[in-house]
User: Fold these one by one.
Assistant:
Number 1:
Amino acid sequence: MMDIKGIKELNIEDSIKDSYLDYAMSVIVGRALPDVRDGLKPVHRRTLYAMDEMGVYYNKAYKKSARIVGDVIGKYHPHGDSAVYDTLVRMAQDFSLRYPLVDGQGNFGSIDGDSPAAMRYTEVRLAKISDELLSDLDKNTVDFAENYDGSLSEPTVFPTRIPNLLVNGTSGIAVGMATNIPPHNLTETIDAIVHMIDNPEYTESEIFEIIKGPDFPTAGMILGQEDIYKAYRTGRGSITIRAKTHIEETKSGKEKIIVDELPYQVNKAMLIEKIAELVRDKKIVGISDLRDESDRDGIRVVIELKKDVMPDVMLNQLYKFTQLQNTFGINMVALVDGRPQTLNLIRILDEFIGHRVTVVTRRTQYLLDKAEARLHILEGLIKAVENIDEVIALIKSSRDSAEAKIKLKENYGFSDLQAQSILDMRLHRLTGLEIEKLRDEHERTLKDIEYYRSILGNRGVLMGVIKDELQEVKDKYGDERRTDIVPQTGEFNIEDLIPDDETVVTITHNGYIKRTLLSSFTAQKRGGKGKSGAKSKGDDFAERLIVTSNHARLFFFTNTGKIHFLRVYELPEMARDAKGRHISNVLTLEKEEYLASVIALADTEDEKYLFMATKFGVVKKTLVGDFKSGRSGMIALKLREGDEIVTSDVTTDDDNIFLATRNGKTIQFSSQEVRKMGRTATGVRGITLEEKDEVVSMEVLTGHPYILSVTAGGYGKCSLVSDYRLQTRGGKGVKLCRVSPKTGLVCGAKQVNLEDEVMLITRSGKIIRLAVGEIPVMGRDTQGVKLMSTDEYEIIAFAVVKEENEDDSSED
């Protein structure tokens, strides 16, 4: 292999690794992460410094943004002009920074996401509070470094008097890391720092009592204190932020929700568009009008509600589906001595105090050196004035200033600096008044030197200076907290507003759903025609009937094996003869997805099992708690091709499972025979089916003595549970009842007491309520008795109702 002069062989893997690490560190240190001391990234620092150099102060005239951007790019930050202008714009937006650092004139964008005007149109100057970041920059308080081409120098950090990293926050994405620090209230932050200075033995909880949490420029609310404390302790966490709203009543008696404040960084226009989209897609029902009435005085988004819509229920839906409630992820990463670190709240405050100690120490040393130099000159001038005649004669006799300087040094012992100051002194300084001023200045300088030395020699005095300056900043710029913090105990709970009444949930074949108070139905005699419970439309009919309570959790199982969640009170409440509202207005279902089973569960049943059965005879047992944190639409049971979920219930290992088939077969087996499975498991065989048979119902036996079976033709009977022997899971089962063309196929079988009541529902929507005690107890191999005159209509569902002790004398 021929060697070529000047070419060096490199391992490509090592070369790429080194290059990427160099790039990553360049982004981390030079672009994306703030310095813990002043809370600024390089582009922010360079922009403010360029404005300071130009003299664009808060009390001076505005200058075009384009001129500022040009100076920043040309002198300190050789990157894109749009990046620099975006930085300038953000520092001027009062909805982005809690305490804006730039005072802008013109269009700097809006909370609706509107873009700012071009930089040639807008004008800026430094905000007054920026003086506190730049204060003492000329007193050797911080180090300077060469700019990108070595022609100028720029500060590596600002000698800030405000804890800018916390009060304004920051966000940035580097390589392999990111930062997201929320803004805080200046008054609280300074009070915490002062407390740390005054009480070296402070505790973490004392600081947390002072800094209550983030304070966003757009106000709003933070839900829960514990999440804030967790983020403050570790430097990482997330908090839930929510819009602030109130309820108003219209002249017509309807209610409307008024949004007064938004969560931080939420685009108001996009939020309104999202709400409109949800209403259009019928995912949220009950909003009649939506408009933005915001003006220069503040935000006002009006959401008008339809009649009888509960504002609190609607708010809960809006919090769930829109950014009226949002999550802010806290990741407090900043540069400490040039290295990125995750910092907790105490560490950030401590680093700022350390920075102020360094700044005040360096400033004091600078002022001391300057005062001592001035004292030296004053001592020379005073000595010269006291011997003015001889000094003047000496100067007059000298050939030139160089000779005069030498003579002054030799004859009077003046230093070179003192001799030059005497030669530079004007004649008016020889008047009596000026001589007195020299002596006064000498006295003041002596006192200043003593003060500076006390600061440098006594840490207590030094910390007192820092504290006084912080108090001054607080007095100038401190304000009240904007963001409210709502404790977890005070978090809104919709269930507190809704009575836990017994309720009937009705679902039609075409997917219309409603809830109706159970008291709307009264008991009737066996064989009656029933009351109208739901209006049918075309070929639609009531298909499912669930008796539950308002606070229960509804689990909706679909034909595809998915599960959706709702509270009963979230369903529309309607009269018993109302059609209901389509399920697509309540749940988000896919195109070919429809409801297969619905069950109601109490919050106390998480440690029990959810037992599912399919029409192919497959069963599955999963902990209820496994679904508690799940999202709507997740897989509940992985189905084989062609199979569907029939029903579900809750069970324990002490229960027995009772399956009934369409052709009148049944099997009873122990729940222990089915092992606990995960959410996506397929399940195991519960019953072996004969040809053209399928499972129609499942019961978890809980000690009731009877099984009530009902057929489509309106026949029914009660049988003793003991008539059905316990078998092994997967068998063919035994006879449930005699099935014939007269009786029709089996609708289902449920366990009952004789004191219970049963509600039957036909395909036409007629409902009848019967006492189970009126239904005879018969053997397994019987067809039962006529329970309801069905005419041409078939019974398609029934539910068991507990005794309500109602007066059944009323009739419609």
Number 2:
Amino acid sequence: MTFSLIIPTLNEAGNIDPLLSGIFSLDTLGNQFEVIIVDDGSTDGTPDKVRQWQKTHDVRLIERRAQPDLTGSILDGTAAARYEVIAVMDADLSHPPDRLAALIQPVVDGTHDITVGSRYIAGGNTINWPFYRRWLSRAGGWLARSICDVNDATSGFFAFRKELIGNITKNARGYKILLELLMTGQGQLRIKEIPISFRDRQHGNSKLSLTHHLAYLLQLITLAGGTVSLHTASRFALVGFLGVFVDVFIFQWMTGHGASLASAHISSFIAAASFNYALNSKWSFRLHHAGHLQWKQFARFLTVGVFAMLLRGAILAWLVHTWDMPAEWAIFPAILTTAMVNYLGSAFYVFPRTEPPVSTDIRWRIASVGVACFVILLRLVYMDVAQLIPDEAYYWQYAQHMALSFFDHPPMVAWLIWLGTALAGQNEFGVRIGAFLCGLIAMAYLFALACNLYDKSTAMRSVLLFVIMPFGFATGLAMTPDAPLIAAWVATLYYMERALLANKSQAWLGIGIAFGLGILSKYTLGLLGIAALVYVILDPVARRWLLRPHPYLAVLVALLLFSPVIIWNMENNWASFLFQTGRVGNTQHEFATHQLLLQIATVLTPVGLVAAVLALRSIALHYREAPRKHLFIAVFTGVPLLVFLAISTFDSLRFHWTSPLWLALIPTMAWMIGQNGISGNIPAQLRTAWRPMITISLLAYAFVLHYVTLGIPGLPYQFLSEHYFWKETTAEVEKIAGEIRQTTGKEPIVVGMSKWSAASALAFYSKAPVLDIQSRNLFGQHAAMYSFWNPIPAPSGRPVLLIGMKQQALESSAATGNFEDKLINTGEIHSRPVYRQDGLLLRTLYYRTAEGYRGNTTP
């Protein structure tokens, strides 16, 4: 085989002889190759060692006089090479010479354009490397995988066609030229990884330093389309430093004059951001600015600024309200944290690199990574500062009454909350950490599923679409049964695809576990079992599984996991099963299909609804190209959808019930974004529509979270009077209870006049002395699990305090007959305003007092 082997050197005198001896002793290489050693100014006699080999072997020495640079050395060596196949390896004996033939052959044969000696595929490993070097190498590889599809993109052992070097930019520098090569084909190159055993150097010193690692990060960002460089970063940092003075001065002045935390930080941020934009556009990113105000660019700057501002509000709220840090000090870490959002947003979105152009695929990949990271950060910060909604408080009550199952839901949500609060305490973070982890699990399984069905780029876009859709964002933050359901649903789909399409028998165990955990989360997951049966019946290949034991063992595993629910229902007269089946098909029929379409548009976004319809159409049009794959997607989306459509013709559904069924279709929706020319110009139009939809969705989520924690100046809380701010409301209820206690000398019974919302929220936020909290089952009305937890008490002379989420709840006469005397102040319902600490009105509390409870008299 004919090839040129390039070996960059810098003070490698002790390694030259053993390295070249090992190479020229290999019979597998033949004798039609040359070795080009490019020395970068060694001072230890390395060139003299090479000259000795020049006398007897086809070895050439190039001595560079420029600034030492690994990429520059390889470029110079390639320019001098005689052959069309180029191989590169280090001189430190870390790369095994005996793998050269396997590395070069695919390129020589013409079957591949680039081959990479990989440490991180099956058969590859690293030997005698310290832990920190392994960690840094792995981290570098993972970062690079966002823009390329190679497991070991930081490898220095690779081969390529010489012509590819012409596509590398002239200013390419750094120590990872492989990344530059991988990006030249914009995804069109044929790449193969060869496993190698990498050994740490035995002679000499490593040339890697902190500067090299920073240069690698800058190289990654530049190749991804950002304008990040040490030049722009240093100028941006200086501008940011000056902006901090503006920011802090205004913030401190406003808080010192009684302004709310929200008003102060928003005002100071806007002032500082405007100051920063003026200097950054004219100085930091001057080469990427037209020299005059560009409204499109300025709009992008405002968008990034709003994202950073809303995130900063979360950090401020977290530091001030959770960690009790004074606001005047909390502003500093908040500014530092969000500065990175501003910088990366400016580099990639406001002032992106335009020359050489970056492919649309890479742009979508980077957008996927950026959006996913922002969503994860948003959830992580807000999960501890946003108060629980009543649903979450109700499921927290589950965890306070642990059981095998519960009346209205299986027990998974209770188990997760119990574990989270046991580890993190009885707080919002402890309640929600399970939902946060379920969100990460769902993202990982969706990525893997989309990779199997399509490709990596589609998988990254699938995660992007998932996290910006309302159901995907919410289920990773709010601790409801939907959080584990979504994770289990997509995990079941992943293992279903592995079993039914890839024919992996071991995947059936995964199906059994994922399905069992999913049905422990919510009964809706049973629809996947029906869909699986339909697919097996329709697909001749999958039908063979009916004659094998694996599916039946999976069913057995799922049943074993589901057995706590069965046992609980047996012990409670099948209460949960009867309740769930009775929710559909009651005597009052209602046509609600039109409502179902609105609900789907809500959980998917309007653009998502259009994309879903087009994705189903695309599956039909391209069915013959991959019939089994398209049948899989159609069945696992269509069967649950048909069930909900059928139910909607005679009964209304909850708006979020259809959420998980779209998980099977999201990969196709994401795949369409990367296609051109399908069904006319629709994909291009759809891709255009997704961009503002993604931005609007993220802004909406961040805005709402900021609104409920810190507020938005000028926007009152009139929209949250019923379901939020129970922490402050509970404090007011405790005051009323204290007044009753002081007046009567008796401990009042506090009754939340709703099925479970008011009682649960009051219970979570009640402080010592803990209130005696009941629900409306006290008056014979059904109150979900409260009817099990709190049986009707005996007649009591204690006063009763009735709390309503709204006034109408207290106007009902249902409770009147349960008291010997009429309600005190008959017909009068009291109300009290509920304020935040800074004096902002949050909501109105409605309450009523009574005495002489004589037990439930409702027939």
Number 3:
Amino acid sequence: MSEMAQTDPEGIDGVRMTWNAWPRSKVEASKIVIPIAASISPIRSHPEIPTVPYLPLHCKTCSAVLNPFCRVDYSAHIWICPFCFQRNHFPHHYSAISETNVPAELYPQYTTIQYTLPQNLANPNAGADLPYQPPVFVFVLDTCVIEEEFNYAKSALNQAITLLPENALVGFISFGTQVQVHELGFSEMSKVYVFRGSKELSNDQVLEQLGLGMLGRRVANPGFQKQSTGGFLPNAGVTRFLLPASECEFSLNALLDELSKDQWPVPPGQRGSRCTGAALSIAAGLLAACSANSNARIVALVGGPCTEGPGTIVSKDLSDPVRSHKDLDKDAAPHFKKAVQFYEELSKHLVSHGHILDVFASALDQVGIAEMKVAIERTGGLVVLAESFGHSVFKDSFKRVFEKGEQSLDLSFNGTLEIICSKDIKIQGIIGPCTSLEKKGPAVANTVIGEGNTTSWKLCGLDRSTCLTVLFDVSASEKPDPSGNVNQMLYIQILTSYLSAEGQAQKRVTSLCRRWVDSTVGSEELVQGFDQETAAVVMARLVSYKMEMEEGFDATRWLDRSLIRLCSKFGDYRKDDPTSFTLNTYFSLFPQFMFNLRRSQFVQVFNNSPDETAYFRILLNRESVVNATLMIQPSLMAYSFNSLPAPALLDVSSIAADRILLLDSYFSVVIFHGMTIAQWRNMGYHKQPEHEAFAQLLLAPQDDVQMIMRERFPVARLVVCDQHGSQARFLLAKLNPSSTYSNAHEMSAGTEMIFTDDVSLQVFVEHLQKLAVQSS
């Protein structure tokens, strides 16, 4: 195993499974408690993935691609598919194949391989000689904000335009009480089409008013018309509303300079009129007419709640508060269901054209992310939630979307994902940023979780950190095969076709092999194949999904019961004797993950708004296992004079007066100075030459934070605080409360205390042991 593979748990395939050995039967699969699931990163970059410049070779029966697990008869030039056992002949251009001359896709180490497809496959609706279409960005700017916020937003847009590729097409829409579509192709004077924000317009009505009526109906035209000269001429809609960044940079900057915030008067005690839904709907219609089936994004900068027209989340009357979790539970949010329905329809429209919705929400109040979640997730869009357009969380994240080189997010477009399985495996669905393509087949399970009822999914937008959770079902019966053949191996193949950020059509094929085990005979192999981190992340995604989908669902109770059943099944103990309980090392961290998940923002929604909860869950569902684990159980590093920086226990006992702690909880990063360190810093010791070691100690966590920030999207919120300071709560909320007011008498003097009624990890584990060993 290479050094890279040892440090990288996802390896070359970008896949991690809850169980790496699978029970044979449905009954045994139900007994292992944690669902059989795979966390897959479809286009994650890895230096060892080979790229080949030819088309993949498909099985003629099941469409699986030639892979290292195929049996090959070199003399007869035949390969046997491991999924359907079909015998396939190699085509003529493989005629030189032999045992000493094998193609890359049969190398045992190349379980993941990438194919570069011919350029005419970059756009499925394009002709064979049509060139690659450049990326399209339609910026949608909220003008119904205060002057300071408006200037921050305009400044961010100015910077983004300079970072775009020169050939990228750019469109611009502003909205407040009304929606203004700006015609960038008319440079002599600014020309704007105004739509009433309160009115819900059909797609045809929008196109008619923009003068694009015929274009909207001519869907077959993907945005370019061929000239007799052999060059390519963009259609009229493109030249009027979408212009290459190189041509419109000056005019767009001038437009932004002239643009003023919404002038509509706001009566006292009222919210401003903001028609977010209408603006997004018009942007989607414009893209459908001018740039159907191209790699296009709607980039919306929203500064407050929608109060007008479709997608309204709250009335204009300030005495009506924006809906809370309590309102949603009691069905007392009058606008919620209608707004969600509107965004569901919008998501179907966007997905049908392969377009993406990105939302950058910057407001102290909610803006409606909870309602927009369906459209963001199904199109694979990005979402950032910040307090202000001037905050570093927004500014740095927005800049990263458009950056190139190593800082780039590798934003890719128009993807499709297909999964092919061995015959005894069924697919329940996917939790993550994708949309079901309703492709039925024998591998579709009866139970549907997330985007299900299919073996194929649409990924309008994906990037190198996109990660999906696939949930499987085992349909194999316990009866042996009548022929007596028992196949010990199971196979899964993941086929991802997409357009890279450069517009190159790619197909990535990942072929996986795992072992069936008979858990009725012994569970050792099953236990050794358990992945605790992946299991924790899958449980977090599943519990978040159930909380949204099932009315009255008790998340904490469901997690506790699952954990008790797991410990009862795989723990080693004497009946009714909690002191005898021990847990195999392969499961030893899992109770701790569940303890932190129960306390996390995914399950405890009391302190968060519906927007924040939706934001946390969107990111939980799309990030890698490593990042999602951080969201559930943050990492803690300690810095002190006596030792090198080292991981510390996520416990209140880790706080010391002469220590600096660095907490990374993914959404925020906290630098916490102990009391003595803070006093010395306030006295300026670090500025004195004789205290250079202290100056270096203060800098060490800052350097580590910069490394974390460079790799993260959205950029984390940085909190720098001192022991006993008001912002220390950001650290204390994440620590295990091993010392509280209830056990203060047992603690030594000077021990930091957390004022909470939450039980500590130790008490939680004691209860778990007691319940797991019960006879009943």
